[in-house]
Amino acid sequence: MDTQIPLTYEGATRQLRVLQRKGIQIGLNQVIESAIVDFAQGICDEGLEGRYVTVHYNEDGLTITDDANNELETSIPAPGPGHSFQTAFRNTAPQLMRYLEQQVHDKLSKHQIH
Fold first, then answer.
1. CA-wise closest residue to 108 among 36, 49, 35, 38
2. Domain regions of the chain by residue span
3. Which domain of life is it from (predicted)?
4. Nearest 5°: CA angle at 86, between 44 and 9?
5. What is the pLDDT of residue 82?
6. Distance (Å, whole) CA 109 – CA 114
7. How close are the terminal C-alpha atoms of the chain, in Å?
8. pLDDT in the model for residue 83
9. 85: how many CB neighbours lie within 10 A of its CB?
10. d(CA 52, CA 44)
């Protein structure tokens, strides 16, 4: 995957075209999924000052597991009732990214991610 994380729907479609031109077989859903995971993972890594947890994608929520024992530390639900991360990203990606940033920082400050 490209090192730059797309933070908007337009950025994700641009990244999709770049990857497909390079011959990489990938769909828009995969690009969006990677953007969400990579964004949340980056905030976790920065807050913990290293890579100690792994963010996992699930359509209705992200889970964060401890790398040492693979145990679930916490989860982050998709925003809004009946919404999915894909829908939220396609409709309002900047708000979704702010939501993820707020959720991860909140869980870090409460030591739900350590």
1. 49
2. 9-109
3. Bacteria
4. 85
5. 73
6. 10
7. 27
8. 79
9. 24
10. 8
Instruction: Give the pair of three-digit tokens for residue 18.
Output: 């770049």
Contact 64, 74 (CB under 8 A): yes
Q: Please give the chain's pLDDT, 114 residues, in tens.
A: 446 899 999 999 999 999 999 999 999 999 999 999 999 999 999 999 999 999 999 878 999 999 999 999 999 999 977 779 999 999 999 999 999 999 999 999 999 998
Whole-angstrom distance, CA of residue 22 vs CA of residue 25:
9
Q: What is the pLDDT of residue 80?
A: 78
Do the Cβ atoms of 32 and 86 come closer than 8 Å?
A: yes
Residues 6+ positions from 109 with CB-CB distance below 8 Å:
none
The residue with tokens 């929520």 is: 61
Q: What is the DSSP letter of 5?
A: P
| pLDDT recorded at residue 3 | 60
Alpha carbon distance 9, 89 (integer Å):
7
The residue type of 42 is G
